[in-house]
Every structure is written in C-alpha cells, then in structure tokens.
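Now for one record.
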Amino acid sequence: MRVVVERVSKTYHDRRGRDVAALSQVDFAVEAREFVALLGPSGCGKSTLLNIIAGLLPATSGQVYFEGEPRPGRPTAATVFQEFALFPWRTVRANVEFGLEELGVSGLERVERTRRYLDMTGLGGFEARYPHQLSGGMRQRVGIARALAVEPAVLLLDEPFSALDAQTRTLMMDELLNIWETTRQSVLYVTHNIQEAVFMADRVIVLSRRPGEVLDVVPIKLPRPRRESHYGAPVFVQAADRIWGLIKSQAQTALLDGDVVAGQGD
C-alpha cells in the first residue's frame, strides 16, 4: 500500500496561548513495499508527523491518504513506539494477541498468527513471560510482534531502538530488516541517527528544524540484503555525508534555540 503525505502542516498552542508551528507543507510518499526513513534535528516534528499518519493526531492543514486495496480484517497502519508500551499484567503472548482481540480475530486464527509472529521475532519459548522478566531488546521485539500480528499494510516505527544499548540496537536493526525482507510491508521509520537511516532505508526524507519542512529526499543505493560491510562502502559514506550536510546547521541552531515544542516531543 502507498502512503501519501500531502502538504501537511501542524500548529500547536503553547501554554501562553501562542501558535507554534511544528510542521509546514510536508509533501512525500512511501511507495508500496518500500522502507523509508524520516530524519531531522530534535524538535523538527518527526514523531508528530508519524502520529498524524497513524491517525493519532489531526493535521492543521493538508491530508494523509493511503492508496491500494486494504486486506479485509487488516488495519491500514500499525505503530511501534519509542517506549515499549506493553501491558505489564499481560504475558508476551497476551500482549501480542491484544491487537487481534481488538480486531475481533477468531480464537484459532489469533493463536496461529500470534505463534507465527512470536517465532518470526525470536520470541518462541518466551510466551509465558511478563514484560518485567524481559530485557529491553526482548520487550521491543514484543512491540514489533504485536504490530506485525495485525498484518497492517503500513508499519510505522517511532525511534523503536533509541532506548537500547548500542550492541542490542545493532542486532535489532538486523532483525527488523530480516523481518521486512520476509513481509515486504511499506515501512516509515523515524530516527535521528544518520547511520541507522542509511543502513536500513531505500530513501531518507530529511526534515528541517521547526517548523519541519522537507529539505531533501536522499536515495540509498546500497544492495539488499544489507550487511555490516556496507557501513564502509563509498555509497554509504556519501549518503551519510550528504544528509549530515543538510542538517548540521539546522541541528546546531535547534540546539541553541532549545527548539522543541513543550510537551509535544519530537
């Protein structure tokens, strides 16, 4: 399924009642079966834009729409959040089943789909554990399995590995790409990490500082499947340098100005 973001703007009201522009005239599309990263300096509105696409926030102007025939009983989009957002009183299996319960999926199909995505995310054997019994990486795997289990046309990920240590983060990036190679869903992946964006994505959409506008769309011409050896490839280095050149001054200015919308995050 294709995702179209058309001239989307978002304005908040701060605590003094003043208008604060978070996004301005954002235009881009995510093609069917494409992996796109969304990147920009702190406070550029990346997470706000993802929440608008997910239907969790209204746009002030512009629109988001999806092109393609949705599969019956499957949602258009599902989101994996930066925080693990698991129910602590539910087991791993029950957390993954939650979205299926909300969709009214029958018991047998719910069991089969839950088992399939638990195995796909390396959670087989951990079904009866509770979130507090899992590492950070394992908890985020549960969040990914829960989103995949509803079999959305589009998978939205909001900095899903930012709370993990560097080694776990690298392993989880590899696992997510392996899953994507299997499912080939359209993916929009929010990150602030240039190397992560270049390693994972087909294209990187670069946003400016607040109000976030599209500075450029950088194609990543690395072959797939991606390998650690690609980090040293000239194509990788050139793409990373190009993106850093786009956002360096933006990030410096945002840092000096404290350019984050209070209470609205990134």
Remarks:
- The chain has a mean pLDDT of 91.
- The longest helix spans residues 234-257.
- Residues 199 and 226 are 7 Å apart (CA to CA).
- The chain has two domains: 2-68+153-257, 86-152.
